[in-house]
Amino acid sequence: MLFHTMEQTIKSGIYKLLEKVGDQVNFFFSFVRHLLRKGFEWNEFIRQCFIIGYKSFPLIAVTGFILGFVLTLQSLPTLKDFGATSYVPGMVSVSVVREIGPVIIALISAGKIASSIGAELGSMKVTEQISAMEVSSADPLQYLVVTRILACTFMIPLLTLMADAISLLGGFVGSNLDNKVSLHLYFNKAFNALAFSDLFPGVIKTIFFGFAIGFIGCYHGYHSNRGTESVGHAANSAVVSASLWIIILDGIAVQLTNIFAYN
Amino acid sequence: MQDELTIETKQATEAATNDNNVVIELEHLQKSFEENKVLKDINLTLCKGENLVVLGRSGQGKSVTIQCIVGLIDYDEGSLKVFGKEIKDLSEDELKEIRLKLGFLFQSGALYDSMTVRENLAFPLTRVMKMKDEDKINQEVEDVLDAVGLKDAIDKMPGDLSGGMRKRIGLARTLILKPAIMLYDEPTTGLDPITSKEISQLIMDLRKKYQTSSIIITHDMTCAKITGDRILVLQDGKFIAEGSYEDLEKSQDENVNSFFK
Ligand SMILES: Nc1ncnc2c1ncn2[C@@H]1O[C@H](COP(=O)(O)OP(=O)(O)OP(=O)(O)O)[C@@H](O)[C@H]1O
Ligand SMILES: [Mg+2]
């Protein structure tokens, strides 16, 4: 009996999972179809870019600064023992640009942007605004979804680059608490340590992170159920699955970079 | 001269009974949500210029029926034709074209709450009709607001409007595309008796002005009386009665009768 119900639960769990995957694949193809359709909503796209950039910038800036600052303060004492403090700028810039910056900024954006897209589209769905657009032939997928996904894909890399730059500033401030370093020297050291193979993969993967954030946010909002509690549910699942996707994508990206860039 | 006139009227009555005059036709329509069989056997015809009222208790599937008509919900069985075309068989573009001729007033009004009233009304013009001329857009927006009697609300946000005003703005947004068929989902529910009467009157005025055919879903008997040429009563997934207000008022059936008490 127990075994039977367990089997049932597992079966229905797998069934539901497959259904979800199918839904998402479907949603992806309708995104592509509506992307290629003529009449791209430039105004809405630019508005979304502005909202995403403007609203997230303070958070991203603070995060970036603290990232560089903390990294510096943590590593200074150890490196000092070896008399290697001059490596601090390079260490901060390489680790932030290559890995920590993209991943942390993407995770924070998942919390901020994916959830707000999920909640916004979810509440539009629940209050029948999306149906109203559909009924008036206004194509909600093209107007709401395509613009938001593309805006995320475009803005997350920019935000990450800004955060990378600000983290260097944080590192500079951290170094100065210990010992006076000139800005010129610090940045020279930081940039000298960076190679093309650090910057390029770091930027490319943020494009995918951005896409995942926009796509997952839109998917959960657009497919939320009837009833107001589903708005919260949409926002919540958007954050959870966007974060998960970011980590999975990062794993893949690191593997690919190791194969192509450092061999 | 006299002869010509009689011929003309005769043609008009013939046309009225002709199939060409049917704009919406539902035959044996069925729809279930998983275990829940909502529509069991729906048969309905809407003729040109007619106001059809659908009565029914809450949760009987009235909203589902008209959402099937605009293709928001897929039906399981039966046939559903709008302007002679089966909705299920239409491609995405064909469905879009049909929807341009249909107006749908949502139960909640469904105003876009991140936009002002003006932007709400301009939305269908700019997105759907691809209108660019600002002056022309403003003119149309003002005209349609005038038609629903809410010119002052033009720069308000939907959140600042009362329930009745939201319904009227929702109505205005639907009317701005001048649909041939209007589907009203409970246009007067939740409004005070005076506002309800005004909206019912508005529905009649709009029919006169734009020559629309309409399906009006309601539980409000005053609205049904003012607007309905013909009334259908929905119960347990089927229509159990049909007739004019006066006919149904005399009905012996308890389910029908209870609406008129
Ligand atoms: N999208 C949906 N998914 C699942 N069930 C639905 C959906 N839409 C409607 N239903 C179910 O169909 C039934 C009829 O709903 P409908 O909204 O058509 O009722 P109604 O007659 O319009 O009632 P009311 O007068 O309260 O608006 C209800 O039992 C509802 O739970
Ligand atoms: Mg309803």
Could you describe the 3D structure shown?
The complex is a heterodimer of chains A (263) and B (261). Chain A has 263 residues and is an all-alpha fold. Chain A has one domain (40-255). In chain A, 87% of the residues lie in helices and 0% in strands. Chain A has helices at 2-36, 42-81, 88-126, 129-135, 140-178, 183-193, 196-222, 229-260. The model of chain A has no long low-confidence stretch (mean pLDDT 91). Chain B has 261 residues and is an alpha/beta fold. Chain B has one domain (49-74, 90-257): Rossmann fold (3-Layer(aba) Sandwich). Chain B has ten helices and ten strands. Chain B has helices at 2-17, 62-69, 92-100, 117-128, 134-147, 163-175, 193-210, 221-227, 245-249, 254-257; strands at 22-33, 36-47, 51-56, 77-82, 85-86, 102-105, 181-185, 213-217, 230-235, 238-243. In chain B, the strands form two sheets. Chain B has a six-stranded mixed β-sheet, with helices on both faces. In chain B, a hairpin with a 2-residue loop joins β4 (77-82) and β5. The longest helix of chain B is centred in the C-terminal third of the chain and has 18 residues, at 193-210. In chain B, 38% of the residues are buried. Classes of the chains: A mainly alpha (263), B alpha/beta (261). At the A-B interface, α4 of A face α3, α4 and α6 of B. The complex binds adenosine-5'-triphosphate and magnesium ion.
